[in-house]
């Protein structure tokens, strides 16, 4: 059984930082590409960042490029999203996803976490 559990969300002021974590109970974690998506009220689920199974290649949405580096710890079966210089428009529920194919489409991923709320005040 595959399970993804996000943590690290919270409420911060604009310009602040948060570090999201996603613990994956996947036996073959190293074989999976990992990604973060987010969804704000009234909006579609949006791609944020992805990292290949090897950890050597990353992809970012234009909105977070340079601000939200994604990384993974193979030994801990965990993927991270370091969120820096947060803006009010970053407020959303952030979801961790895992799949065998990397992509910016939600349909590319097979497993999803329940999400963690990120709130940014101005």
The portion of residues assigned to helices is under 10%
Question: How large is the share of residues in beta strands?
Answer: over 45%
Report the principal-axis shape. globular
As an assembly, this protein is single chain
The helix/strand class is: mainly beta
Structural features, described:
The chain is an all-beta fold and about 120 residues long. The chain contains no helices and eleven strands. Strands 2, 4, 5, 6, 9, 10 and 11 form a seven-stranded mixed β-sheet that branches. Strand 7 and strand 8 form a beta hairpin. It is globular and about 40 Å long. The model has no long low-confidence stretch (mean pLDDT about 95).
What's the short story on this structure?
The chain has 122 residues and is an all-beta fold. The protein is built from no helices and 11 strands.
């Amino acid at each position: 059984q595959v399970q993804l559990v996000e943590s690290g969300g919270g409420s911060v002021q604009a310009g602040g930082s948060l570090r999201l974590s996603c613990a994956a109970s996947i036996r073959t974690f190293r074989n999976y590409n990992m990604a973060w998506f987010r969804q704000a009220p009234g909006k579609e689920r949006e791609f944020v960042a992805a990292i290949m199974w090897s950890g050597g290649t990353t992809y970012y949405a234009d909105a977070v490029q340079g601000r939200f580096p994604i990384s993974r710890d193979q030994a801990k079966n965990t993927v991270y999203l370091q969120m820096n210089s947060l803006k009010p428009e970053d407020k959303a529920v952030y979801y961790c996803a895992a799949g065998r194919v990397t992509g910016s489409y939600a349909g590319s991923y097979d497993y999803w976490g329940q999400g963690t709320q990120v709130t940014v005040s101005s």
